[in-house]
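Pyridoxamine 5'-phosphate oxidase, Tahibacter aquaticus. Tokens?
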Amino acid sequence: MSLCVPALEELRRLLAEAALSGDPEPTAMNLSTIDARGRPHSRIVLLKGVAEDGLRFFTNYTSAKGEELAAHAQVALCLHWKQLREGIQVRVEGTVSRLPEADSDAYFASRARGSQIGAWASLQSQTLPQREDFEARIAEVEARFAGCEVERPPHWGGYRVDPDLIEFWYGANFRLHERQRHELIDGQWRQRMLYP
Ligand SMILES: Cc1cc2nc3c(=O)[nH]c(=O)nc-3n(C[C@H](O)[C@H](O)[C@H](O)COP(=O)(O)O)c2cc1C
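Tokens:
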């Protein structure tokens, strides 16, 4: 894995700045995946860390996105902070792999108990015939783990995105926006500007 240290440092700086800017969801990012038929799908997930091994997010491995990621490991991520400076967008493309179990365990243990219960109770992406069915599953999981810690379900955990493209778009007056693209080409990170 080859990391683009300057781009990841810039991303961390922007995340910190976005958190201070009062953005209610500074880590919300669009995650695009491709299914086995080549059809793209997008949804928001939370960016849970920019680490040495890539960008992390957590989800249900048996969800629609989990199946899509098993079919195609290529993903595109997009973050947008409307109120930061003149507006900033970050695009990331790369390859996902599952995080080590110990990392998923550690993150799961840090989650609120309600979220832990939800990870067991939600059959994410499957048809829910009626709301009461979900509530009954939540009650069943709460009873199962009453008085003890909720362990991580085997179907729930993290992915890391190993980027091969990171692009920063900085908004500016009169549409003189700035685009800085970092691309991994033949094992080397290269930087160039693009017309906005
Ligand atoms: C602000 C926001 C944050 C979200 N964060 C996550 C997340 O971190 N992980 C997750 O699995 N779903 C998250 N979701 C729900 C997803 O957008 C999506 O509905 C769910 O993961 C099912 O997607 P799928 O059927 O394509 O697998 C979030 C939704 C919103 C609006």
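The longest helix spans residues 5-20.
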